[in-house]
Amino acid sequence: MQKYIDQVTSMAVEFLPKVLLTIVTLIVGFWIIKKITATFKRTLDKREIDETVKPFLVSLVSIGLKVLLCFSAAGIFGVETASFVAVLGALAFAIGMALQGSLGHFASGVLLLVFKPYQVGDVVEISGKIGTVEGIHIFNTILITHDNKKVVIPNGVVTSGVIINITGQEEQKLVMTFGIGYGDDIDKARSVIKQVIDSCPNIMREKPIDIFVSELADSSVNFSVRVWAKNEHYWGINFYMQEHIKKAFDKEGIEIPFPQRSVHIEKTA
Known about the structure:
The protein has helices at about 1-45, 55-75, 80-100, 100-115, 155-160, 185-200, 235-250; strands at about 125, 130-135, 140-145, 150-155, 165, 170-180, 210-215, 220-230. With about 270 residues, the protein is an alpha+beta fold.
């Protein structure tokens, strides 16, 4: 029994200082990392870094420092870090093979944060879905549609397809089509459309305004009307024009054709 007591005492004398030093190192290290991360975040705030990138960079710094701290603590405790790194590398390789799709989304997320085809707050069309970008995360992008639905799109899907940034520019060209009957006066219709445009608020008057006949369709003569608008005024102008063109055409006796079908019934003996 005395022999075992001596062995335990010897091991305690040998390892207790290492254990205490490792614990102190971890406690102090995590505290320092917290301070460094907070300082790094404040630095990003002062430099007006894009809000989309900040969480990713702060998380990356925090995780990287914690990994280094764990390696240092393992070395203090007496663990062979070279072997530990080899085991960790093999484990990472195995996990990577199992999560190839997720790693692809991660890589795509990094590309989106670096090249910035869109930012938080932009209205975009991705994979046929249109919405406002709520967040760009490491593995996916979150859109909020106009009817307040949340759409989660994997970043790998985003980068492998076409991205349409609808509000990436401060201004947009609004293209509208209005049809009149073949029996109506084209010049009169153009004048009425021009009057409605002149009365519409928020249209950018300094930009070109186009009103021209774009198509002789099956049942109508179609006007293409193109005006410029700030992003925030886009839908307001569109709704105004649709309503007031209809009212103005009705007032001036201009017909807005709609598809009709004539059915002929023949009597058979």
